[in-house]
Amino acid sequence: MPAPEGFHYQKRPNGSVYISHHGREAATLRGPRAAKFLDEVEAGDPQEVMARWTGNYKRGNERTGRNHPRNR
Description:
Blueprint: E1 7-11, E2 17-21, E3 24-29, H1 31-43, H2 46-54, H3 62-66
Antiparallel strand pairs: 1-2, 2-3
């Protein structure tokens, strides 16, 4: 599975964080969630952290799993 890419974040003056993916809004975080997100971005890989926080990290095997006989 390829690494996530195309995410950008912007910290706003009011403390909220705006996350975009390829120029489109993916999430807006406010309050304690925004602070926790910023801590995680500084500690780890920013692209993976943003993918996880926006829910845009499941890619690749969904179709295969859906078509498995056990899941029909």
